[in-house]
Amino acid sequence: MKKSKVTDQAADRQKGIRKKSKVAGVMITQFEAELPEGKTTPDFSRKPIAITIQEGKSTYFKAIVVGNPKPSVTWTRANGEIVFHPDTCRQMYNESSHEHTLEFPKVAPEDADTYKCYATNDYGRAVCTAVLNVIEVGFCKAKELQKTYGDDIPDFLRKKLKKCTIEVGVQDDKMATPEAKIWEILKNADKKDYERICAEYGYTNFRGMLKKLKQMKQEEEGMDIAEESERFAFDDEVRQSLIQVDKKYDGGLYTKDEEGASVFTANVKVPEVDFALKIQEVKADERQDALFTCVLTAPQNEIKWLGKNEPLSNSKKFEITVSEDELIHKLMVRDCSPSDAGIYAAVAGIKSCNAWLVVEEDKEASSIGKEPARKNTLAGVDDDADLLRIAKEQQERYQKEMEENLRKAQLERDAAEEAARLKAQAARKQSVEAQAAGKQSVEPQAARKQSVEAQAARKQSVEAPAPRKQSVEAPAPRKQSVEAKSEAKVAAKAPAGVKKVEAVAEEPARRASIKEQRSSSIVADVHVADPIEEIGENSLFMESVEVDKVTVGDGPPTQDIGKGNDQVQRNAQPKSEKSGKKEKHPKVTASRIADDKDTAVGNDHGDEMAKQKGENSGTTEKCPKVNIPDAGDAAVAKKGNDHAEETAEQNSEISGTKENNPKEKIGDIKDADVGKDKVDESEEEEDEQPAAGKRVRVRQGPLIEETIIVSRQECISPLTSDPGVHFHIGLNDCKAIIGEDAELVCKLSSEDCVGIWYKDGEEIKSNEGMTIIKEGSYHKLKLHKVPEEFAGKYKFEADGRKTEALVVVEDPPRFDPEELKTFITPVTVKKGHRATFSLSYIGREPIKVQWFLEGEELSDEANIKLENSEGNTRLLLIKLQRKDSGEVKLKLKNEYGTAEALTELIVRDKPTPPMGPVEIVEASSSAIEIKWRPPKDSGGCQIDNYILERQQIGRNTWKKVGPIGPLAKYRDSDIDHGRRYCYRISVETEMGTSDIMETEDIQAGTKAYPGPPSTPKVVSAFKDCINLSWFPPANTGGTSILGYNLEKRKKGSNLWGQVNPSHEMIKAKGFAVKDVVEGMEYEFRVSAINNSGAGEFSTPSEFVFARDPKKPPGKVIDLKVTDSSYTTLCLSWVKPKDIKGVTDEAKGYFVEIRPVEDTEWERCNTNVVTTNFYTVKNLKSMAMYWVRVIATNDGGEGEPQELNNYILAMPPPVRPRFTNGKIKSFMVVQAGNSARLTLNFEASPWPEVTWLKDDVPVSRRATISNTEGTSQLLIPSAVRSDSGVYTIVVRNIVGQETFSIEIRVTDEPKPPGPVEIEENVPGTVTISWEPSPDEKLDDRLYYMVMKRDSSKRTWNTVADHIFNNRFTACNIMPGREYRFRVYAKNDMGASKPSESPKWLIPAKKERFTVNMPKSKTCNLECPPRFLVPLKMHVAPQGYECYMSCALKGDPTPHVTWLRDNVSLNTNTNYYISNTCGVCSLLILRVGSKDTGEYKVVAENPMGRAECSTKLTVRE
Predict the structure, then answer these.
(1) Rounded to whole angstroms, how far apart are CA atoms 904 and 129?
(2) In angstroms, rounded to a whole number, what is the distance separating the alpha carbons of residues 1387 and 451?
(3) Residues 5-53: pLDDT tens digits?
(4) By the 8 A CB rule, do 948 and 970 touch?
(5) CA–CA separation, 236 vs 242, rounded Å?
(6) CA distance 1450 to 1426
(7) C or N: which end of the chain has fewer Cβ atoms within 10 Å?
(8) Helix (H, G, I), strand (E, B) or coil at 905
(9) Distance CA 1092, CA 1010 (A)
(10) Residue 1329: closest CA among 1315, 1349, 1347, 1309
(11) Which stretches of 361-404 are assigned E, i.e. beta strand?
């Protein structure tokens, strides 16, 4: 990974006031001390952030700046300059989002740097930095070496590069992967994975691999770096140089650095853990507990809980629990408050889920100012059975996956073990032959030396676990074992970075070597526990080797056991000779332990004594079975062995018979193989062939320390070692309260043992204060009414065993039980009265006394009095209110504990009104039954009665119904049907009557009226009768319809009149209305009648004339199409003619269409069209239709009128033409910017649009967008090659139209080269210069020359639009210093100037004479003459009017203004001026009196002149 070097150098050193921005990391420099109003310095509202990205990806920095005036944004980098190019880096600005962007389309390692963003305006500058880090992926170390050495990399570096591999699990099987498989994997892998795959499969020729893959030309995406269950195993040396680049949980991108170069990258993935059941939203009441529960798909000991984006942990507020199977995770939020509401999240690995906690506030408690009571319920509890079912399913699924993975691993391991076993068999076969030839020549002392060396080598070489069930079937020579151990010892000294890789690669050979070493001393099947099966780090697993019928004394002593066993064998031989009887070896159980010298010494001492015992007894001994644990104390083991062997020696001397020694235990030995070799190699000296009955047993559990096991079947004399009395239950520390009883209890293993009690080292016996009791194996010490003196350390001893406990005497605060019973009785008082609480207590002072009322601590106030005395406290509450009711708590606290006493305070008051709303149970014609809720507060008393009053709506009096009892319901049967009633309800208790609650109006027996019938339909109409019909209503009101009422109304009138008499309803569902006037227009409506009365009226019918039926109209005239489009068609026509007696006037029209392929007509309008035009919509584009129009009136529909031909659904043909108002034919675009051409046109039918560049179709770099009536050409990032003439061709069946526009893509030109000056002709100089580099790229480039001399000090343009590289400047004066500047210019502007050297021609000084010319007199006198006459003026009334004229005359003429020949010079209403011959007259407010002729008269001695005009005032 290539990181940038962060620098803090300012781009420029402009001085100013520096200040910090609100955005962290932004520094602002203010140029002026005070800013003008409304002006601000630049600032960043969004600054660019640091980015770490992989090489080859795309990225960008984004910034948003603010300030007034609008700041300009520039970008720089710390090292070098930013090269802006569309393919590497480009700067952009988005006007819609106001974002400034620095984009890198394809990040390269050299782009890594610190970038600065400057925002500058006239008043300040803001700057911020952002770092770009680039992750290089690939063989970086090889790149670094090639940079240094080229292609000839030294061998030692090449070897070092090949050895820098990283172990990923066990690679035995991968090493054996065929080469074809490796290439198949590489072909389907991504380039970034090549190095990992080569390292994983041991392929080190990286360059050859890349060359071969390039020839194959196959690139596919694929492989992951590691399986989900795998993890990278790095030793310490590799881990120091391994850097995790992109960290996310345990996964991320790892890289290995050596000598400053990245040589390895690996993407480690985390195992995916998902949620089988996500947490759900929980709604909890205030002060209730809430529970979130989730179930994972894989076990995880803990997950991360977040509450409102804050991490949560176990505390008094939050409780996090995990099930035993680690699948169900729970979060409990205790005592919820409104502040706890929010979003809670559970995060497992890279997965997360969240849910809301909604806490509903207890409004009732908050309204009366009390804290809500604590609730014991739990919100959010799911069905445990469902949770367990889901967890069980996930556990079974996960278990199956793990078993499958283990099965695959076992198959691979078994295959490796089988290969190692076959190799070991061949090695053993060779060792047997070598052993038979060289066994006789091996001296005992040399053999022991070799054994010690082999043990030391094996201790260093055995680092990896042995295979799980290796079978050793034949012995191997000790010499071969020693050589293998020596090689392992040398390998152990290798560097740590290489040792681990080689150790893994040579694992099968090493395991076979271990088996051969063990088989050289033991001829048996040895089963070694696999470390995978170990339970934990401290678990002890044992290998038991039972050896029977091994005779000691028939051969030389064992040579390879070590010092301890050597001594045992040497001492055992004399004992056997003295006894004259055969001696048996003990049965040995050897565990997997480590080497310890003290143990060997302990064995030496024990074996010497065993020899002596054997000699004195003269019997044959069967050796005991020895348990060697995995950990312990070497000194204790030594002492235990000495004691056991001394006892065995004495017993053997006395008995003189065959003896079974007890099983021995040797602790804290650190090499399992040493203990095994000591026994196994001693057996080999006696018999090299495997004896019958030998077997190996693996104990599946930890060894029990201090345990002696005796084999009774092998013992002749019942010689056992009694473990003695021990404790089953020891004493526990006890806290006793003064004046109360306490007890200490322990339990022994024997009931017959008698012990002694001690206190602080002194023996104690039963007395008045304490009693010693023995109940079987239980021993008790009872302390009666414990005083302070009983505190101390108590000890119980029995048979040399002891147990201790500490008794602490405490004096916490306590209440008198009798007084407490009185105190907890609730206290009831009336409102305004007082209440007293008093209670005595005992306990060691000082005692803190606190009184609480409903959880709030009380203190001395106006209505609260607290009195505390020695052993007593008193609370007095004065002027109590109902709201003071609640729980009263007394809390006492001292150094030993706390005590609390609770009671209840009930303040009685009159009740509150009943709570509504009132529920209407029944409201029929015979009774009204209502019920309500009891009052919110009954005042602390029982409700005696509810008092009701009733009022009939429409009356002013209330009738007292009377007390109705304590039930909150009432049934009123004394009512009238259809009446409405209102009730008042109040509560009565012994404390008084509450306020009333008034109900809403309740109707007794609601009336159900029928709904409206259907709209009446006109069946027929005549001049004297109109026939109507209708349908009955859908809602009859629950009863049958008795009849109908019919009403009519004339058109234009607001009054409805009933048609049928009021006492005679219409029985039928139709009626003939005869009360009509001929020629009048009527509408009708009808209502239904049932038992409740008449219902609502129907909607009115259509207006109908009372006249005889009309005749249908004729055909419409002049039907034609006025306009059309792809989806619409516009029609127009003339109404048909009226022919008396044949046709009548048309009332409306219907339009119908029919596609050419169909035979049925479709009506376009469902309602009648009264106009003589219509637009048909929703047509299919370019479809053919037949169209016709039908006229209609009250007499029916007339004959249809069709168009002569079918109509095509398309607009009228229009030749293409462009509709843009002003279209430029030339456009200049700066290189890098976008070029956009938008042209609007109209054409029908839809035209074909083509864009050409220089008469050739445009390239793919240009984007063409065509919409309806618009075509756009867009070049995103223009370059110079995009210059040319672009032509748009719009063509349809009618014709075509073209338009051309020239686009010139250019950039600001670069300045010309050096400028030279030479003088060819006196008074002129020739300026020449080198052409600008852009001259060849831009044919419109030209030059401009500017000059400055020493006399003027300003630059003047002397020549422009110069298309060559030379210019001759004239009028060059001697004695003046000249400078020239040459600019290159094009359509984008001018370049920076190229300046010439100074040019100076010294001037020759000559004598200067002045010849003054003779002056001639000139006569300038002339008569007055008007140069600019007066103009006509029309001014609105009330506005000002300004008149002016210009005149000439010498001497200066006198000017007079006249209105209607009246002088205005002295009139103050007019403002007259005469400045340099310009005469003016100003009228401030023009009125009607100012109308007239205005004249100007100019006079001087030479003559007179006049000029006049008229002023018209407009009202």
Answers:
(1) 68
(2) 97
(3) 444 433 343 457 888 788 888 989 988 888 888 889 999 988 898 888 8
(4) yes
(5) 10
(6) 13
(7) C
(8) strand
(9) 8
(10) 1315
(11) 378-379
Structure tokens at 678: 């000591």
Q: Are 725 and 667 in contact (CB under 8 A)?
A: no
Count the Cβ atoms, other than its own, within 10 Å of residue 1061.
9
Residue entry with tokens 């209890």: 745
SS3 231: coil
Contact 1107, 1192 (CB under 8 A): no
Angstrom distance (rounded) from CA 715 to CA 643: 19
For residue range 567-592, list pLDDT tens digits in order.
333 343 433 333 333 333 433 333 33
User: Residues 494-551: pLDDT tens digits?
Assistant: 333 333 333 333 444 444 444 444 443 333 333 333 333 333 333 333 333 333 333 3
DSSP alpha helix (H) spans, 981-1106? none
Sorted by sequence, the CB contacts under 8 Å of residue 171 that are 6+ apart come out as 200, 202, 504, 505
**Among the listed residues 583, 567, 571, the one whose alpha carbon sits nearest the alpha carbon of residue 618:** 583
Calculate the CA 130 to chain-centre distance.
24
Residues 1186/1164, Cβ–Cβ less than 8 Å: no
> At residue 211, what are phi and psi to the nearest 5 degrees?
-65, -40
> pTM value?
0.30
Bridge partners, residue 1186, by sequence: 1154
pLDDT tens for residues 1073-1084?
Answer: 999 998 899 999
Cα(756)–Cα(772) distance, integer angstroms: 10
Question: Across the strands, what pairs with 1027?
Answer: 1020, 1072
Distance, CA of 980 to CA of 519 (rounded, Å): 111
Half-sphere exposure (Cβ direction) of 1213: Cα atoms closer than 13 Å: 8
Residue 355's Cβ-count burial label (10 Å; 0-12, 13-18, 19+) is middle
Cβ–Cβ < 8 Å for 677, 457: no
Q: Which amino acid is at 216?
A: M
Beta-ladder partners of 258: 261
Q: Is the dihedral of CA 585, 586, 592, 593 positive or negative?
A: negative
Q: Is the peptide bond before 69 cis (omega within 30 degrees of 0)?
A: yes
Give kind and range of the element (H or E) at residue 455: helix 444-461
- Residues 985 and 1003: their CA atoms lie apart, in Å, by 18
Strands (E), 689-826: 695-699, 727-729, 734-737, 742-748, 756-759, 762-764, 770-775, 778-783, 792-798, 801-810, 814-815
The DSSP call for residue 594 is B
Does residue 979 contact residue 936 with C-beta atoms inside 8 Å? no
